[in-house]
Write a structure and sequence with these properties.
Layout: E1 3-10, H1 55-67, E2 74-75, E3 84-93, H2 114-122, E4 129-137, E5 147-158, E6 171-173, H3 179-187, E7 191-194, E8 209-219, E9 224-231, H4 238-250, H5 256-265, E10 280-287, H6 289-292
Parallel strand pairs: 3-10, 5-6
Antiparallel strand pairs: 1-3, 1-4, 2-3, 5-9, 5-10, 7-8, 8-9
Helix pairs in contact: 1-2, 3-4, 3-5
Length: about 300
Amino acid sequence: MPRYRITIAYDGTDFCGWQKQEPPSPENGGNAALLQHVEPGLEAATAGRLALRTVQGVVERAVREIVREPVNVKGSSRTDAGVHARGQIAAFTCSPREGEQSLPERGWPIERGIDRLVRAINGRLPDDVLVLDAAEVGPTFNPVGDTLAKAYSYTIHASRTRPMWDRRYVYHTWESLDVERMREAAAELVGEHDFAGFAAAGHGRLTTVRTIHTCNVARLSDERIRIDVSGNGFLYNMVRIIAGTLAEAGRGRFDAARVREVLQSGDRAKAGPTLPPTGLCLEWITYNAHARGEVPDSSSIESASEPDAE
């Protein structure tokens, strides 16, 4: 049975996150306010529930319409509501290849072409989601377990003037930020640490130890600052808390020693605020040699075993 890996970009503003959500309908005790987040044409798998607008939901619907059979589109990162992506990775399996006891009108045999598959899916997606590319992968490819590393960016607009045209993709602060202080604080995060102090309560992970490969702060212009973080995995809200902590360093309220204190104590109250999702974007995900079918560039990078929930 052919299995396909797809790379997806999306504007997360109007989504309830990546992962499908089906809360109870108002008639069954659910919150009536959730009706504004229902996606037309999406049906809940269970009667009496609502199918909220999620990226996974609309992508699964598009793929299902193409292959004409039920599919499970599994993503690498469970991005939260309002979080964007340039390089989300997902995978799905459909019916056997042609000539392998499959009905000709079902599935997507590799002979039909990867480019045609991408165009067909995109033709059924809303304007705020786009499949960038696709590839055939082995039957055991796991977009979560085969992950080597991934990277997020967080963009800050620090100005006395509000952002206008790209306000959906940046966090606005009225205060100016000292980038050098932010860089000094960011350097303390690189390496393997217990990031309990940088995780939201109820993160649900067995361990809070993660390895950060890079944490860079760049001034893009007089008003724009971008934080780039890569690592082997991230805890719930971890990057947004890192961004909030570095912003506090830029305001002069924290320093590098404060970051070390948060890491050593695991005390969330000592870290900075959780910044809004608007400035956060999933940039890229890389995979191990088994998943790529090639020798990895570095043997020092550890594989992830759990999906992020940023």
